Amino acid sequence: MSLSESDVKKVAKLARIAISDDDVPHLMNELNGILGWIEQLQEVDVEGVEAMTSSVDVALPMREDVLAEGYTGGGQPEKIVANAPKTEDHFFVVPKVVE
Amino acid sequence: MTDLTTKTIAELREGLGKREFSAVEVTDAYLQRAESAAALNAYVRLTPEKAKAQAELSDQRIADAEARPLEGIPLGIKDLFCTEGIETNAASHILDGFVPPYESTVSANLLADGAVFLGKLNLDEFAMGSSNETSYYGPVINPWRREGEDTKLTPGGSSGGSSAAVAARLCAGATATDTGGSIRQPASLTGTVGIKPTYGRCSRWGIVAFASSLDQAGPIARDVRDAAILLTSMAGHDPKDSTSIDRPVPDYEKALEGGVKGLKIGIPKEYRLDGMNAEIDAIWQKGADLLKAQGAEIVEVSLPLTKYALPVYYIVAPAEASSNLARYDGVKYGLRVHDDNIDEMYSKTRAAGFGKEVQRRLMIGTYVLSAGYYDAYYLRAQRVRKKIADEMAKVFEEVDLLLTPSSPSAAFGLGEKSSDPLEMYLNDVFTVTANLAGVPGISVPAGLDAQGLPLGLQLIAPAFGEETMLRGAAALEEAIGFDAQPTEWWK
């Protein structure tokens, strides 16, 4: 499998990275170089092998469904928006998204 | 008074306890030394006021006989760890001006044990790189040079600021993170000791995420004892990281005296690469001989799937990164490039904010997760990963530890490998399997090559085998007796 120029543009769009048409040829070469190298995984027999989803063999812990204390417990809007490029009254401000 | 920066953490602890010198004196000595080493570019920011205030508090606690395990020990913190009230950028333009309102669990553990933070250390952007050249703040320069040359060499990556700062004595020890080799390869290239613990041993909470199933924090230090001391403070269960393991943390320093008598140490034959650097091969053999002389049994073992570890990594890590880095969109923190259209704002912000290597990996990750390719790439990689982890686990039924080189070459020149991403990726060929399998690894300085550059050897242990690993590392360190220091050309 190798990427065409239009695939590269599509992937960049999905990744939300603006690229110029001038970038496409060399990006295509670099990405195809990496993907070509990765291709060797096709030769490994993975029949009946389960996909590894966790590095350690433990069940995810459960917790009580109660409001957490500290940063995730709410009541600190100033801290939540403190680093945002643009805010108003504790809201994140973004360009208009609905007409 | 002798230069306080020549003392190890263990020596500082002793001297501070006996009131031979004060924590303020130690911190001042390090700050002065760090300030005069700007040429190395190891720190992205020093925090002298904060450090001095912490040191004063440490002196007070020592006077009150209330010293904690790391009281007054000056450390450098990789700028991937969020530090409350101190700018944290992960060496990325996209996190410009980000001041975390919270402290990462690992750095909080160190502070709770009395450590002093000197500042934040440079790294590859979002920890993606093996040479520190992807940092938005420019590469770190290795304090080591080839004999008779002034070529600028890499300190390795991604924890290059940490390795360079420890090697040049700009801090007593440093925090670092390892996703594919980012602690062990830089340690190898700078003559320092670096530990990547078992996955889940240290909390990932508050560490800027790269590839969540592989990322693990650990220390870089001057010797095995110091690394063990730091790991004891860094490790521990954290309810805020659901993958952190609830298991008691031993005093790792106590493991050092064990010796290797009776241990079975495996030499994986597939790690002997075609065209491998002869000096590295020789140092590897010497390491095995030294361990054998101390009573270890050396056996050859086979890990036939080793060659697939890097390709698996370059699917899994970019896939996870593409998801983790989706949060950088110009809305919640950092850089925003304005546009009236929100999609354009996202795309332009990410194009301006991410460097080339990060963009490349995000595109690979996006592609392998995209509709129609998910099974062929991502799912297959996770199945091969399972086979690699199983193969590793099976070998550990036969042996206690594995001994391998830490990196395929000594420190290389800046720019020498940056034009070819694949060649750069090969730096992690010996380290990446431990990340895929979730097991711990340590790099120990093993000698100098013909050009006078340090080379490291790696010991790998089964999950939660840190104590056995440290026994092996301490024995190896003592037998090798590495005591070389870089010439201080940067002052």
From TrEMBL, chain A:
Residue ranges crossing the lipid bilayer per the database entry: none
InterPro entries: Asp/Glu-ADT_sf_sub_c, GatC
Keywords carried by this UniProt record: ATP-binding, Ligase, Nucleotide-binding, Protein biosynthesis
Enzyme Commission no: 6.3.5.-
Keyword Phosphoprotein: no
Catalysed conversion reaction: L-glutamyl-tRNA(Gln) + L-glutamine + ATP + H2O = L-glutaminyl-tRNA(Gln) + L-glutamate + ADP + phosphate + H(+); L-aspartyl-tRNA(Asn) + L-glutamine + ATP + H2O = L-asparaginyl-tRNA(Asn) + L-glutamate + ADP + phosphate + 2 H(+)
NCBIfam families: gatC
Subunit structure: Heterotrimer of A, B and C subunits.
PANTHER family (alphabetical): GLUTAMYL-TRNA(GLN) AMIDOTRANSFERASE SUBUNIT C, MITOCHONDRIAL
Name of the featured protein: Aspartyl/glutamyl-tRNA(Asn/Gln) amidotransferase subunit C
Phylogenetic placement of the source organism: Bacteria, Pseudomonadati, Pseudomonadota, Alphaproteobacteria, Parvularculales
From TrEMBL, chain B:
Gene3D superfamilies listed in its UniProt record: Amidase signature (AS) domain
Keywords: ATP-binding, Ligase, Nucleotide-binding, Protein biosynthesis
Transmembrane annotation, as ranges: none
Residues annotated as catalytic: K78 (charge relay system), S158 (charge relay system), S182 (acyl-ester intermediate)
EC number(s) given by UniProt: 6.3.5.7
Domain Amidase intervals: 25-470
Catalytic activity, reaction form: L-glutamyl-tRNA(Gln) + L-glutamine + ATP + H2O = L-glutaminyl-tRNA(Gln) + L-glutamate + ADP + phosphate + H(+)
Assembly: Heterotrimer of A, B and C subunits.
Protein family according to the UniProt entry: Belongs to the amidase family. GatA subfamily.
Functional note: Allows the formation of correctly charged Gln-tRNA(Gln) through the transamidation of misacylated Glu-tRNA(Gln) in organisms which lack glutaminyl-tRNA synthetase. The reaction takes place in the presence of glutamine and ATP through an activated gamma-phospho-Glu-tRNA(Gln).
Protein name as annotated: Glutamyl-tRNA(Gln) amidotransferase subunit A
Organism: Parvularcula lutaonensis
Gene designation: gatA
